[in-house]
Amino acid sequence: MEDVQIVQLYWDRDEAAISATADKYGAYCAAIARNILGDPEDAAECVNDAYLRAWNAIPPHRPQALSTFLGKITRNLALNRYRLGRAEKRGGSRLPAVLEELSFVAGGEDAEQALDRRELVDALNDFLAGLPARKRTIFLCRYWYLDSIAEIGARLGMSENHVSVTLRRLRRKLRDHLLERGIDV
User: Which of 10, 33, 68, 103 could be cross-linked to 43 through a Cys-Cys bond (beta carbons 3.0 to 4.6 Å apart)?
Assistant: First the structure.
């Protein structure tokens, strides 16, 4: 089913919207939640909560890209759940490693707080817009979707070493970009 049809089901308040969403985007949302939380049960609960949030948000909101809309809801719910400490106790989450890789962005404050700053968001968007598509994909897979280096390599047909080197260079380039914009790192 096409996204436009799924969104129309939400607008019509047809419960089939949930099953259509689960069929098309269930695995996508589960992967996002699982990468953050590290626990399949927590991830499944998070995905179900994302469907409820989508149900409550559509209408009045009519998302242009349903996958992005659902991915953002799922990611935010998973990060909130992680912050509550549930996933950390169980282990297996990739979030600490990813935040550690980008720790230079924090500039002495919590990395999550730093990422919320408008100035930083604008600088990150400019940085990403200036990257070639493949490098932007690598960066987003690692730092938005929290994919492992092995998963990124497999998806893009690259060795893990190549992915690691590319990420290290991108982090260095991002650091330089932020410094040029006057953002302390």
Answer: 33
